[in-house]
Specification:
Layout lengths: L1 H20 L6 H8 L3 E5 L4 H12 L3 E6 L2 H15 L4 E6 L7
Parallel strand pairs: 1-2, 2-3
Helix pairs in contact: 3-4
Length: 102
């Protein structure tokens, strides 16, 4: 019974910690303040969350290097990032499979 109360207390403490430490999502202004003219390397940039991060960082003026296995998808992501980011967008890509690393 005592172990149950200890486990419950730990669980409640963790929940309280997570609740108080939650942060609001960054606005585009916040992103620009943090990443404008910074070099950012994004692995897994050919789809999903990585792809969306590329677009957002390109829009705020970061220098973005994107890496993924599917080089043909990286070309598409780069083109879209350059379109969204306008004349100030800087995006380079490299196809690489990290599963080859030993």
């Amino acid at each position: 019974m005592k172990k149950t109360y200890i486990a419950l207390a730990i669980l409640l403490a963790m929940a309280a910690y997570l609740y108080t430490c939650r942060k609001k999502p960054l606005s585009m202004e916040d992103l620009a303040a943090k990443y404008e003219n910074k070099v950012v390397l994004i692995c897994g940039a050919s789809s999903g969350i990585g792809e969306e991060v590329v677009y957002q960082l390109a829009e705020v003026g970061a220098k973005v290097m994107i890496v993924a296995r599917r080089e043909n998808r990286l070309i598409s992501v780069k083109e879209e990032a350059l379109r969204r980011g306008g004349q100030h967008a800087r995006v380079e890509y490299m196809g690489y499979d990290f599963s080859d690393v030993k």
